[in-house]
Design brief:
248 residues, 8-stranded parallel β-barrel, 11 helices, 8 strands, 40% helix, globular, binds indole-3-glycerol phosphate
Length: 248
């Protein structure tokens, strides 16, 4: 674990390392998040990945019905669904992922702090189509190894960056989907300006997903102008799911 991780991030990584694997035979086809983002773009829609999360270290606390939420988002033509499966800080579960995968036919991202192959095994068997790898919490060797492991299951992998150094790591390893998080996971500071700056460093041959802090069409417009292909939105939609109609 990189030396500078402290506080809640160190705890969440320790919990993730110890988390038991859940195994079942996958029943679901794999839906390509990457392809769905491109399809929505070609249709002139904003490719939105709607996230279900009950709580977060930055203060969210909403307990909506998960299946009602994801079915509503699917009906409103989102490019994908993100399911927080981290238990301690985000109130998620692997059961949430399993239930969502059984109820929607759009790409599903398992949103968690992936640090072991066991977590990728679990994502695949429960029906996820994509996983997140967070540069901040992995060494470059771990990142490359877990990326290759996830790709061996034909899963899409979003490699998440929050600063210039992490963008450089993502670019030199030819990762094809890069998530730019406006929120710094260590400080929890939120900055769309930072996201715009980082997005402009990433060439257009990568799929770029802007994550966090997106509240309005203007936010989407400015991130799109900076090069974002898709938009991962949690809090705004958890607080008012109907907002999807003005953002899509
Ligand atoms: O609720 P917001 O501000 O729309 O953010 C959603 C998503 O970007 C955020 O939950 C997130 C992005 N990367 C993460 C990594 C782990 C946990 C959570 C996240």
């Amino acid at each position: 674990m990189p030396r500078f991780l402290q506080g809640w991030l160190a705890d969440v990584i320790r919990f993730s390392q110890q988390r038991p694997e859940v195994y079942k035979t996958r029943q679901r086809p794999i839906y390509s998040l990457k392809r769905n983002i491109m399809v929505k773009k070609s249709e002139g829609k904003n490719p939105i990945i709607a996230e279900f999360k009950r709580k977060s270290p930055s203060g969210l606390n909403v307990n909506s019905d998960i299946i009602e939420y994801v079915k509503f988002m699917e009906a409103n033509d989102v490019a994908g669904i993100s399911v927080l499966t981290e238990e301690k800080f985000f109130g998620g579960s692997y059961t949430d992922l399993e239930r969502v995968a059984e109820n929607v036919s759009v790409p599903v991202l398992m949103k968690d702090f992936v640090v072991t192959e066991k977590q990728i095994n679990t994502a695949y068997s429960l029906g996820a189509d994509a996983v997140l790898l967070i540069v901040r919490i992995l060494t470059e060797r771990e990142l490359i190894s877990l990326y290759k492991y996830a790709k061996s299951y034909k899963l899409d992998v979003i490699v998440e960056v929050t600063n210039e150094e992490e963008v450089e790591i993502a670019l030199r390893n030819n990762f094809d989907i890069i998530g730019v998080n406006s929120r710094d996971l260590s400080s929890l500071d939120l900055s769309l300006e930072k996201a715009e700056r980082l997005l402009k460093l990433i060439p257009s041959d990568r799929i770029k997903i802007a994550e966090s802090g997106i509240r309005t069409r203007d936010d989407i417009h400015r991130l799109k102008n900076a090069g974002a292909d898709a938009f991962l939105i949690g809090t705004t939609l958890m607080q008012d799911p109907n907002k999807i109609k003005e953002l899509i």
